[in-house]
Design brief:
Helix content of chain A: 40-55%
Strand content of chain B: 15-25%
Oligomer: heterodimer
Order of helices and strands of chain A: HEHEEHHEHEHEH
Largest sheet of chain A: 6 strands, parallel
Structural class of chain B: alpha+beta
Distance between the termini of chain A: 45 Å
CATH topology of chain A: Rossmann fold
Radius of gyration of chain B: 22 Å
Structural class of chain A: alpha/beta
Shape of chain B: globular
Helix content of chain B: 25-40%
Largest interface: A-B, 22 and 20 residues
């Protein structure tokens, strides 16, 4: 190989390696295993949507809106659906501090038991508010992968956090589109 | 009371005053890009305001085709069933306040739902811990729907069009579909579990079993078929025929007690409005069991001697005094509010100068009273406001203020098989205390917070208003009236201005909920007076979604104001 060709090859290899390091892999690959524990961070209704999507993807899953560490037993993946709802918090009888504390403890247990976390935001743009953004900033870094409805990432918040922590980010146009994605990122 | 979707159609016709002079063509400005920026829709002949553009346009088009305010109001109301189904529809009920230009008379049509004949005062209390579910999401939550009967009555007596003509646009939209808004999508998500449980995954109120995203198209062919059968068979098709059987079956399937006779026997009522005077304005409102108007008049009576203008809009003393007044009013709500068809109400006493003075005397200028006797507000009744309001003025000067609802967003979530409409959960507006004047009883209408109103000055209409928002309705409408009268705001400025709300229960003060656009220094001062502040969103639909129409006679124009907290718009010409 000539020196010039070698330089070009080295340049291509270097570029690919650099890009691969900067941008987390976007193409789906099996990252998680069932069964799933699905819970909410913020008590918005999207946790119920996530449970429905998991059902359509034929993934064994349990929805526990106020999950604690004991609910993680025998679960191979924790799905954290982030979205704050004052109505949901009120219906659950918890305030913001209690909810945040619960999720912190749950994530600590997930870390202790090496249970990977799939974080989701399915609420789109209208579900982004101050409290939801606080939950996103605090809890997203604990995720092994993140799945969002694109409209909820218009300002690039998810992109920014995922890039900073080298977390794969999957964007879908609509919640329903997540079914195929879930099938591909979960091992059969 | 659970919040109801208020569809207020306000059509104000100022044409008579304008017709004598040549007028330049009305150029309708486009609403600003920032939907929260105050914007008054302008017309010279007529105006419709409603919580959805397709509904407001449908009402306006009916006026242009020669229909009057009642025709337009019912057209708008039908259309709201198709495009804002979570807030009102033929499965619910409401109140209509009418100003009849020819006779200069104000009248009210009460088509509030009734409790079934098998209702009992203990029907919810005996459910124990499951009480809330039986009040809101089971068959026992469904009051006998009054919507169609009310619309048909108003059309027969005061309109010029048929039920079929007013339903036509709704049928078309239900068949062809329409793109849902962000508001719809957010509410759809909030109520997802209820819809899954009661309407089922295949319901048209979900998009392939998942909540709608903004822009998704909602088609409701079942509703179109239902409306066509009503168009062909008039209201008997609903109250006596196949639809009635399906309603009863759906209610029974979910543990309810409604019978075919309940539906067949439902009748709307035409009643006198309640009225009061505030600084030269005569305010006509729907009377109890619609309690909103009564409480607006009470609050304005209490506030009238205060130096509101000198205090300043949304200043600490302004908010403090009105909040304390609200807490005392709520103390009496549960004690006195009732269905006057069954329980005599002491309206004269509640609206008297003595009552207002007694409340004022109980208010300290520098801190909260802390104790509000007679307060027994049921905390379970403090829910979101899911109602809709419609306002219409026609070219002859007839006015309709229409507030209607299925109570919680998406009501019970129960859809009678194949009919496409949602059944209300207005039975939840009854008290769970069997001894209450507002306990469920056969045929009784639950107390409502709705407050559609029409305002006259020197005997001529100048304003009509209404809002959804449950217990927040009357405080919201009172604040709008004060914004207009005391602070000279334009209609939509008055509607978009920051709001606050509080109540009391069991003698104790509730938190003071505010939109955070109220200044921090004011909030700090209020906290020092003893108020506990709860911050909401900057434009929070918790405080309602008011619609209004204002006649500016000196300028020969009509303004329509529509709340950006929901999807309100005006359509005038």
């Amino acid at each position: 190989m000539t020196d010039r060709r070698t330089s070009i090859v080295r340049l291509v290899v270097f570029s690919v390696a650099t890009l691969a390091a900067r941008v987390p892999a976007q193409s789906p690959q099996a990252l998680f295993e069932p069964p799933l524990l699905i819970t909410s961070a913020g008590q918005s209704a999207e946790a119920v949507i996530a449970a429905n999507l998991a059902k359509r993807a034929e993934l064994p899953a349990t929805l526990v809106k106020l999950a604690t560490d004991k609910d993680l037993r025998d679960r191979r993946t924790l799905v954290l659906v982030i979205g704050a709802s004052m109505k949901g918090l009120g219906a659950a009888g918890v305030d913001t501090a209690k909810e945040t504390g619960r999720v912190r403890d749950l994530l600590a247990e997930a870390k202790r038991t090496a249970t990977p976390v799939l974080a989701m935001h399915l609420g789109g743009a209208e579900r982004r508010g101050e409290l939801t953004d606080e939950l996103i900033s605090e809890f997203l870094p604990a995720a092994k992968a993140v799945l969002v409805v694109k409209a909820g990432n218009k300002d690039g918040l998810f992109t920014k956090i995922c890039a900073a922590h080298a977390i794969p980010l999957f964007e879908v146009e609509k919640s329903l589109d997540a079914v195929e994605l879930l099938k591909s990122i979960f091992k059969k | 009371m659970r919040p109801a979707g208020l569809a207020s159609v306000l059509a104000l016709i100022l044409l008579a005053a304008v017709a004598c002079r040549p007028q330049p063509p009305v150029r309708l400005a486009q609403p600003p890009a920032d939907r929260h920026a105050p914007f008054n829709y302008v017309g010279t002949k007529a105006m419709v305001v409603a919580a959805h553009p397709l509904a407001a346009e449908a009402g306006r088009d009916m006026l242009k085709r020669g229909g009057n305010a009642v025709d337009a109001a019912v057209t708008t109301a039908f259309t709201l069933n198709a495009v804002e189904p979570f807030a009102s529809g033929i499965g619910g009920g409401g109140f209509m306040v009418l100003y009849l230009a020819k006779t200069k008379k104000v009248t009210v049509v009460n088509f509030r739902e009734q409790a079934p004949a098998a209702a009992t005062p203990t029907m919810f209390r005996e459910k124990g811990d499951a009480m809330d579910e039986w009040r809101t999401a089971r068959g026992t939550a469904v009051g006998v729907p009054g919507m169609l009967a009310g619309w048909a009555y108003a059309l027969r007596k005061y309109g010029t069009k048929t039920l079929a003509e007013t339903a036509a646009r709704a049928i078309e939209i239900a068949e062809r579909g329409f793109p849902v808004s962000s508001t719809f999508s957010a509410i759809n998500k909030d109520e997802y579990e209820k819809l899954l449980r009661n309407a089922g995954e295949a319901t048209c109120y979900l998009n392939q079993g998942i909540p709608y995203e903004p822009g998704d198209v909602l088609r409701n062919p079942d509703l179109a078929r239902t409306l066509k059968s009503i168009a062909a068979g008039d209201i008997d098709a609903f109250y006596k025929g196949d639809i009635a059987r399906k309603i009863v079956a759906a209610v029974h399937d979910k543990g309810g007690v409604m019978s075919l006779a309940d539906l067949e026997n439902f009748r709307p009522l035409e009643v006198e409005p309640v009225l009061g005077i505030y600084k030269g304005l005569t305010i006509y409102a729907a009377p109890p069991p619609a309690a909103g108007g009564l409480h607006i008049l009470q609050l304005l009576n209490i506030a009238e001697p205060w130096p509101l203008k000198a205090w300043g809009h949304n200043s600490a003393p302004y908010i403090h005094h009105l909040s304390e007044a609200l807490r005392f009013l709520f103390a009496d709500k549960d004690r006195y509010d009732a269905d006057p068809g069954f329980t005599p109400m002491t309206l004269g006493s509640l609206l008297s100068a003595e009552y207002a003075a007694r409340v004022r005397n109980g208010i300290r200028p520098d801190r909260i009273a802390g104790s509000y006797p007679f307060s027994r507000l049921d905390r379970l009744q403090d829910r979101e406001g899911n109602t809709t309001h419609v306002g219409v003025i026609d070219p002859d000067g007839n006015i309709v203020a229409l507030t209607q609802s299925i109570n919680d967003f998406f009501g019970t979530g129960i859809v009678p098989e194949g009919t496409g409409f949602l059944l209300n959960d207005h039975m939840a507006d009854f008290s769970t205390d069997p001894a209450s004047l507002n306990a469920p009883n056969p045929g009784r209408r639950p107390v409502s917070n709705m407050g559609p109103l029409i305002v006259l000055k020197d005997g001529r209409p100048v304003l009509t208003l209404g809002s959804p928002g449950g217990t927040r309705i009357f405080p919201t409408l009172s604040q709008i009236i004060l914004n207009l009268v005391e602070f000279g705001m334009s209609l939509d400025e008055a509607i978009e201005a920051p709001r606050f709300f509080t109540s009391s229960a069991n003698g104790r003060p509730g938190v003071l909920a505010v939109e955070p656009r109220i200044s921090e220094s004011v909030l700090k001062a209020l906290e020092q007076m003893g108020h506990t502040i709860s911050l909401k969103e900057p434009y929070d639909k918790y405080f309602g979604g008011a619609q209004g129409v204002m006649i500016l006679r000196d300028k020969h124009v009509i303004h329509g104001g529509a709340d950006s907290r929901r999807d309100g718009v005006g359509a005038g010409y």
